[in-house]
Amino acid sequence: MTHLHSSNPIAPGMLGWLFKGANPWLKQQVQTKTAPVIGLTVSALLALATSVQALQVQVKPENPQLGDTLSVVISTDASDSATPTVMSPDGPVPAFPLGGNRYRAMIPTTPLRQAGRWEIRVEGEGQTRNIAVWVSDREFPTQSIWLPPGKDELEGTDLEFDRVDEFKKLLTPEKFWNGAFLRPNNGPITTIYGVRRYYNGVFADDYYHRGVDYAGPQGSSVVAPAAGRIALVGRESEGFEIHGNIVGIDHGQGLTSLYLHLSRIDVKEGDMVQAGQVIGAVGSTGASTGPHLHWGLYVHGQSIDPVPWRYEGVE
């Protein structure tokens, strides 16, 4: 450790010569003066080595594409450290404890976002990690929808839009879901996530299909794909012209889901539901061309593809 020489005019190799034949007082003085210098240097090196490993970040999936949810898992050394802060390209996103000095933040991506290099900044324990993530582009099909007379002029009501927007902003600290999500209905999938649409011949700008449609038979069961709290119940008769009879589940930590066009609702706001529990039945209420279930999944208010959650889930 040659850098010690500059802080002590006596080179380490000379200590043995000085001690040879020296009286005890000299030995004590030299040891007293050098020990603190060596002790401080070693302590500083140990602190530096520890801090290098104190904050670790892992982002999943490894090869994301537009529509995926980015899961940012952060590991720290100290059990009493403050919650790390996470900055996405769209701004700050909350991180929640997973246990064992680990935290997780979720970042949504959508078809309306730019593919390419996304930078995520994580700060914690006095350190900063800048993580580059490459989000691949994705081709989304185009679909023409022809609404029947009486439904082709529906514009929706302030009531339904305000209620749905308020629901999507929920940020409950608790995490209710666990593991991969279930299929909410057994009907065949007719419209996938992200489809662009023409409505009665007019292209819908800045629109993409915010969910997955299941063409289940009229009255077939709709189940909760994961545990959560019923935070929204709305009915066509109350002014939900576009959404129809609707149920919203708060899964916690910024993850919410919506179930549209129901013929029947079997839950009420405030109910806690478990994965697989029946919450209603398929219908054709609201802006719908026939019986089907529209299932939408949202992260911090942004519509993401529900399908990866069915096969992998997010920790």
TrEMBL record:
UniProt xrefs under InterPro entries: Cell_wall_metabolism_enzyme, Dup_hybrid_motif, M23ase_b-sheet_dom
Signal peptide annotation: none
Residue span(s) of domain M23ase beta-sheet core: 208-306
SUPFAM superfamilies: Duplicated hybrid motif (SSF51261)
Domain of life, source organism: Bacteria
Name of the molecule in the record: M23 family metallopeptidase
Lineage of origin: Bacteria, Bacillati, Cyanobacteriota, Cyanophyceae, Oscillatoriophycideae
